[in-house]
Amino acid sequence: MSEQLAFPGRFVPHATNMPQPPNAPALPNRVSRRSMITQLLYTSASRHPRGHSSDFEILQDALSHNRVQGVTGYLLRDIGGFCQVLEGPAEIVEPLFARISGDPRHSDVVLRMRRQVPERGFLGWSMGYASLSPEDSAFLATCFAEGAGGILLAFERIGRVASGQD
Fold it and tell me: pLDDT tens-digit profile of 14-34?
């Protein structure tokens, strides 16, 4: 997300994890060293106000495709933009992120973090969704401004919220 956009404090959940399609493979939580999980965290500016029908379309697209593709994650929405974590096999997540980056429903896509991890942070979430309060948006904007350490703090906060610990 560009510098002028904020991402504040208290999360207001809107949608929960959708049930797994009957033909979808089970997702492993841990993987071998040779097959680490790629995690991406990005922000972007929305071209439409929060609550626009495009928000529902984005969530529906994610829910219908992610589980089958082995992708998990969480989408956060504030008044002006998105903050999303994607995780899964690199050969799936990287082209997915490229496609998302070119989606005309948003702009100013900024990759905040890309890392390889041995286990998923959002296991069970084909795509979670929450609306951000002004306080949560401010907290995340501050984290993003602090650089690498702040990005990790933001990622941990998103994970706690998604798991219901915050």
Answer: 333 434 444 444 545 554 445
Over its C-alpha atoms, the chain yields an Rg (Å, rounded) of 15
Phi, psi of 20 (to 5 degrees): -70, 135
Cβ 43 vs Cβ 112: under 8 Å: yes
Task: Map out the domains of the chain as residue ranges.
Answer: 11-22+34-162
Q: What is the pTM of this model?
A: 0.76
Sign of CA dihedral 61, 94, 102, 7: positive
Class of domain 11-22+34-162: alpha beta
The per-residue pLDDT for range 54-75, each reduced to its tens digit, is 888 988 888 888 889 999 999 9
Q: How far apart are CA 63 and CA 96, in angstroms?
A: 13
The residues near 76 (Cβ < 8 Å, ≥ 6 apart) are 7, 11, 82, 83, 84, 129, 130, 131, 132, 136, 140, 158
How are beta strands 128-132 and 72-77 bridged, if at all? parallel
Looking at residue 16, its pLDDT comes to: 37
